[in-house]
Design a protein that fits this description.
Belongs to the AAA ATPase family. BCS1 subfamily. With about 500 residues, the chain is α/β, with parallel strands linked by helices. It has three domains: about 150 residues, no CATH class; about 210 residues, Rossmann fold (3-Layer(aba) Sandwich), CATH 3.40.50; about 80 residues, no CATH class. About 50% of the residues lie in helices and about 20% in strands. It has 17 helices and 15 strands. The strands form four sheets. A seven-stranded mixed sheet has the order 10-9-12-13-14-11-15. Strand 7 and strand 8 form a beta hairpin. Helix 3 crosses helix 4. Bound molecules: adenosine-5'-triphosphate (ATP). The site of adenosine-5'-triphosphate has 15 residues, from helix 7 and helix 16.
């Protein structure tokens, strides 16, 4: 059949329908008209038993991008990439700069929820813009959801809620994560792009696995925390000598969970009120870190100022302008107290919705007040220690891409005799030539370990000598005292 033969009768049918509709509107009595409309609607529902819901991209007068729309967009991204024939691609500005695909205009994808079939389509309205002098068009997109009317309640009650939740979760996973630092009572942020992961972290595999499982269990335990009536938070205390990987582990935690990091500098916080303000402003899915807690807060209630200690005799004090900036940053009358911090951990913190981890680090766990680190506040205590042979092997795999080497035996022996931090081991394993030579790096480590062993031996000998001398001096003093006493007795 030729196109002309098809369209000619169709055109006249449409024209007749429009004619009857106009006549109906003009001459049909109003009371009867509402009845006819009601029955015609019922007829349409019978023939077309589907419900459609539209989600517009922009809502309200201020043309804010609708949250529901962007959640649906994220939710549909994985379905679109497998089902849609025409796709749009965009780079998401997350830490991986990954490519995200979504369906193109007028495409349709299907979905299934508890046995219900649903269809999503992306539509577009084009309007002429009135604002510009130049001819311009405005495109407004919308998602349309279609499903059978018999599932109305299930879709409205459960399906849409799950779509929005999943869509928001995808958005959080794809977002660019941030590292916040406080300057006084204000947070400022930069993009968080630390490459550390648990794979690159050198520590005993069982211990590493335990921490990973603990973190993942926590991140999925929203319902559990709600059921037992506890705030969804968990405290970690990382302790160990400098250079054993405390900061590296925090970065690995943030990367594992996809959380933001808040690096809270307590010495720059004026008082408990400021502390409270800062903490209320933290978002969910975040890790709040207080490094070197023993230096940041005097556990008797008086604060010390670690930065001040470090630069006491430095150049910073000589420049009056820098001194002023420093004083502004570290006000002298700071009064953050241990009890203020504990209140935050126990009380106020609980009022903020969403999951949060709080991590304290210290080089001296023995200096910390037991109240601060009891379970419930710091739930998990993790010791990061000197490099073991197992941890070294993880570093060697990472840095040198080797799992065994003839020099490993000697290194294992030396690790049994001398302590070295993973930071120092890592430094020896850094490439010394271009391209990196494995043997040169391993020999550098052996040399470093032997040197450290020698130094430790000299130090031990010196200490023993000093102790001996001290002992000699003590016994000499005692002898003198005894002879003075004896002389006195004789007189
Ligand atoms: N366990 C580890 N695994 C892998 N790399 C490590 C480890 N420990 C330390 N490093 C390396 O050493 C460097 C210093 O480590 P890091 O800053 O994490 O130590 P730290 O314990 O936080 O030290 P500090 O107490 O002085 O802050 C890191 O950049 C990292 O490359």
């Amino acid at each position: 059949m030729a196109a002309k033969d098809f369209f000619t009768p169709l055109g006249s049918i449409i024209a007749s329908l429009m004619f009857f509709w106009a006549m109906f509107q003009q001459y049909f009595p109003y009371e009867l008209r509402s009845h006819v409309e009601k029955y015609s609607k019922r007829l349409v529902t019978l023939i077309y038993p589907y419900i459609q819901i539209t989600f517009h991209e922009f809502t309200g007068e201020r043309f804010m991008r609708s949250e529901a729309y962007s959640a649906i967009e994220n939710y549909l991204s994985s379905k679109s990439s497998t089902q849609a024939k025409r796709l749009k691609a965009d780079i998401v500005r997350n830490s991986n700069q990954s490519l995200v695909l979504s369906m193109d205009d007028h495409e349709e994808v299907s979905d299934e929820f508890e046995g219900i079939k649903l269809w999503w389509s992306l539509g577009k309205n084009i309007t002429k813009s009135q604002v510009s002098f130049y001819p311009a068009t405005d495109e407004k997109r919308y998602y349309k959801l279609t499903f059978h009317k018999r599932y109305r309640e299930k879709v409205l009650d459960s399906y849409l809620a799950s779509v929005l939740k999943e869509g928001k979760a995808i958005k959080v996973r794809n977002r660019m994560r941030k590292l916040y630092t406080n300057n006084g009572s204000m947070w400022s942020h930069v993009v968080f792009e630390h490459p550390a992961t648990f794979q690159t972290l050198a520590m005993e595999p069982e211990k590493k696995q335990e921490i990973i499982e603990d973190l993942i269990t926590f991140s999925k335990a929203e319902d559990f925390y709600a059921r037992i009536g506890r705030a969804w938070k968990r405290g970690y205390l990382l302790y160990g000598p400098p250079g054993t990987g405390k900061s590296t582990m925090i970065a690995a935690m943030a990367n594992l969970l996809g959380y933001d990091l808040y690096d809270l500098e307590l010495t720059a916080v004026r008082d408990n009120t400021e502390l409270r303000k800062l903490l209320i402003e933290t978002s969910s899915k975040s890790i709040i870190v207080i490094e070197d807690i023993d230096c940041s807060l005097d556990l008797t209630g008086q604060r010390t100022n670690k930065k001040k200690e470090k630069v006491e005799d430095g150049d910073e004090n000589k420049d009056p302008r820098q001194k002023l900036v420093k004083e502004e940053r570290e006000p002298k009358n700071s009064q953050v107290t241990l009890s203020g911090l504990l209140n935050f951990i126990d009380g106020l913190w609980s009022a903020c919705g969403g999951e949060r981890l709080i991590v304290f680090t210290t080089n001296h766990i023995e200096k910390l007040d037991p109240a601060l680190i009891r379970k419930g506040r710091m739930d998990k205590h993790i010791e990061l220690s000197y490099c073991s042979f197992v941890a070294f092997k993880a570093l060697a795999k990472n840095y040198l891409h080797i799992e065994s080497h003839e020099l490993f035996e000697r290194i294992d022996e030396l690790f049994g005799e001398i302590k070295m931090t993973p930071a120092d081991v890592a430094e020896h394993l850094m490439p010394k030539t271009v391209p990196g030579d494995v043997e040169v790096s391993l020999r550098s480590l052996i040399q470093g370990l032997e040197l450290a062993k020698e130094e430790a031996k000299v130090k031990a000998e010196k200490e023993a000598q000093e102790q001996e001398q001290e002992q000699e001096v003590k016994s000499e003093i005692k002898m003198q005292q005894n002879s003075v006493k004896e002389n006195g007795d004789v007189k």
